[in-house]
UniProtKB/TrEMBL annotation:
Keyword list, A-Z: Nucleus, Repeat, Transcription, Transcription regulation, WD repeat
Listed name of the protein: Transcription initiation factor TFIID subunit 5
Species classification: Eukaryota, Metazoa, Chordata, Craniata, Vertebrata
Chain intervals with Basic and acidic residues compositional bias: 316-327
Gene (UniProt): Taf5
Function noted in UniProt: The TFIID basal transcription factor complex plays a major role in the initiation of RNA polymerase II (Pol II)-dependent transcription. TFIID recognizes and binds promoters with or without a TATA box via its subunit TBP, a TATA-box-binding protein, and promotes assembly of the pre-initiation complex (PIC). The TFIID complex consists of TBP and TBP-associated factors (TAFs), including TAF1, TAF2, TAF3, TAF4, TAF5, TAF6, TAF7, TAF8, TAF9, TAF10, TAF11, TAF12 and TAF13. The TFIID complex structure can be divided into 3 modules TFIID-A, TFIID-B, and TFIID-C.
PROSITE patterns found in the cross-reference section: LISH, WD_REPEATS_1, WD_REPEATS_2, WD_REPEATS_REGION
Amino acid sequence: DRQTLVAVLQFLRRSNLRESEEILRREARLLGDELGNAALSPAGPLGAPGADGDHASGEALLSRVAAAAPIAIGGSVAAVASSSPGVTAVTALPPGKGVVVEDQPDVSAVLSAYNQQGDPTLYEEYYSGLKHFIECSLDCHRAELSQLFYPLFVHMYLELVYNQHESEAKSFFERFHGDQECYYQDDLRVLSSLTKKEHMKGNETMLDFRTSKFVLRISRDSYQLLKRHLQEKQNNQIWNIVQEHLYIDIFDGMPRSKQQIDAMVGSLAGEAKREANKAKVFFGLLKEPEFDVPLDDEDEEGENEEGKPKKKKPKKDSVGSKSKKQDPNAPPQNRIPLPELKDSDKLDKVMNMKEAARRVRLGPECLPSICFYTFLNAYQGLTAVDITDDSSMIVGGFADSTVRVWSVTPKKLRSVKTAADLSLIDKESDDVLERIMDEKTASELKILYGHSGPVYGTSFSPDRNYLLSCSEDGTVRLWSLQTFTCLVGYKGHNYPVWDTQFSPYGYYFVSGGHDRVARLWATDHYQPLRIFAGHLADVTCTRFHPNSNYIATGSADRTIRLWDVLNGNCVRIFTGHKGPIHSLAFSPNGRFLATGATDGRVLLWDIGHGLMVGELKGHTDTIYALRFSRDGEILASGSMDNTVRLWDAVKAFEDLETDDFTTATGHINLPENSQDLLLGTYMTKSTPVVHLHFTRRNLLLAAGAYSSQ
């Protein structure tokens, strides 16, 4: 009978007869199952909840995974609860202290995320036992199983803290935190500050860790090995965590090597599930609209923006004809509604094609010239930069909440005349676009006031009529570059907005912020059209795909996600960076994505296959700027280490191994040749690089603020 059993177990424990206790405990477990699944009290010495009929199944489920021993608290009190309906819980206490325990039908407490189901003093033993097992397993399994160390460490620590075993938690942390991979240092720092149950309530990072399952990708052989070990050892505590808090993505085939695993892990929630990168992505480019490209000779006078170039006989231009054929990987032309081309846009396209005809073909033998714009006297205050596509204007966002726009051509910035003056203009005249501008307002610099906090992101519209800025004040503002005034303030984020960008076709724009979501907006809507939710930490940077059907977001959770604008779905999750992501760049052909982070690495991704295909090592600090040259031959990266580096993109993406096996299992083999791909490193004196831009003729423009330290 149960009471006797409990008393005997206690006696054995007091007499330090551990082995006999173990044997009896095992027997009791079988017995318990027959009796109706004995569950254990997670509620400590007095609060052993009895089961109410409704909750019997819940408790039965718990009891199967619960460690079958009575929990010893202070070495002498043990509690066993029965889950057969209507039986009151029985608590065995040292003689002389009689306590009546009432039925407690509320089992929600039992099912809370971290109910204490093991002896807190044994946690270190459990963990070191598993550690010993993994370190002694074969090399091929060891690398894979070592991935368990970090998530188990965090969950076991949080479980101890949650159940208020503070001293055990502290010693557990101190004993094992040094064994974790170096790229988890920042997370461990956050973890070490959580020492009380109350601390856990407000900590978002830890809430996410508890609610989202940590994903591990392990081969079937390694998984079987682990499962067998945990079941033989009856190590239920660890097995519970594996089942409740981890998602193990099992694949058939060879276990992955340490290098292959290291390349892919490091994000807040482990790796991406393989399913996450299976959806079809239309990464091809949309067909360019067809129109005549005027000949190049003797029309220099028609070069200025406003005067329309004279119509000439159409000539097949290399760039114009390139995109006539529909790309098989492109989305349908009308998949998402895009704005109509205006006459001025067509003019701009013509200009673009003319410039492209004079574009320098870059390559390892022909590197671009780099022109560096240094912001002087910015007093550490420069927080964002953007340059127009035609490289005529540059904008800076500053910590003093101002947005400053400069003209970088001899042409000064002018506002449109007042309404009264506009009514006097002859609207039929040829140079009406010139006449509406007010010469008195001409200046090299315009300052835009309106934000009430540092400006973290800026973006020019493709037609250069508008400018976006986003700020710590939680708003995104749209400014007119005709009048240099604010047209709209978009309110949707409640916290700082870290980045914003216009779609390559205008009209749509994206923003991402501290509230961990990215939002898609249209300039004529007050509310966002789409909300992209899924990141576990701040969305730090946002980028449109060249075909505008997708948006990439980089986050402080160390992952990059690709979202479908049409339906808001997440179609790719890329893991591998070991720090928050701060820069993204799509290759001009739309097939590849380059990402840079605080870990100083540039990672290259194949969007169609959902795979990492390269890693460029060289920078020693956060990479804030990435840009592909106009034809995609060169990738430029700019960093806080005061350098611009140029990489051979053609070589990086040739001969990619993207066979089905690699795609299915993630056995990526990164070439160790990032030094061969580095074409040049250019130091500034003391200026971190915050923005890069290739002009239409492939001159590289870089920008940053001189820092006097």
